[in-house]
Amino acid sequence: MGRDAQRTAPIHRFLSPIYDTEPDRPDEADDNADRPAVSSVGQTMNRSEQYWVTLSVPWLVRGAQAVQDAINIAVSEVGTRVSEADSTHVDHCDISIQTLSCPTCGTPIEAVLVVAETALVGPTLECTVTARSSEDAEQTTRRELGTAFDGTPLVPVGTVRVDARPDVE
């Protein structure tokens, strides 16, 4: 065993239960698939938990004549970027436009501002993600979709665990 391999072997054995590192044996992958992971607080959790992660994306649209034009262009461009992203853990992604409340009357309005044929649109991405925790789901979504949104901030708005078993009454 080489000098570098000797140094990393104990670390690999320590981190492999925490992070999904490659198994040492090919048949070990099947053994670990059914074993529940243990979180840092000692709670057992399923490795394949699903989360809904909502991200806010500021999107600039040039050449928009009206609000609806800006919305259509933004949804189209954001949808193209999402489909181009190499996302192995992000299963599904819905695109919608954020709604804001008028500060004086409370009327809901779409998050779109058009000035001089340039619009700032506020789309949201609601993605289904496979992760171990809500924090991991946010990080995974931002990491996997962020490659397609170079230089555009993906701001997490909320994360909710999807209940795989609906309550039966």
Q: What descriptors fit this protein?
A:
disordered N terminus, 30% helix, 4 helices, 169 residues, alpha+beta, three-stranded antiparallel beta sheet
Strand elements, count:
11
The DSSP helix count reads 4
Tell me the major beta sheet. Answer: 4 strands, antiparallel
Silhouette:
globular
SSE order, one letter for each helix or strand:
HHEEEEHEEEEEEHE
What is the C-alpha radius of gyration, as a whole number of Å? 21 Å
State the strand order across the main sheet. Answer: 5-10-3-11
> What proportion of the residues form beta strands (DSSP E)?
25-35%
Report helical residue fraction.
Answer: 25-40%
Mean pLDDT score, rounded?
A: 77
Low-confidence stretches: 1-46
CA(first)-CA(last) distance: 59 Å
Helix/strand-derived class?
alpha+beta
Task: Give the gist of this structure.
This protein has 169 residues and is an alpha+beta fold. It is 30% helix and 32% strand. A hairpin with a 5-residue loop joins strand 1 and strand 2.
Your description of this structure?
The protein starts with a helix and ends in an 8-residue tail after the last strand. It has helices at residues 3-15, 28-33, 67-84, 134-146; strands at 37-38, 44-45, 49-56, 59-62, 90-97, 99-101, 108-110, 112-115, 118-121, 123-131, 155-161. The strands form four sheets. The chain has a four-stranded antiparallel beta sheet, covered by helices on one side. Strands 4-9-8 form a three-stranded antiparallel beta sheet, covered by helices on one side. A hairpin with a 6-residue loop joins strand 6 (99-101) and strand 7. 30% of the residues lie in helices and 32% in strands. With 169 residues, it is of the alpha+beta class.
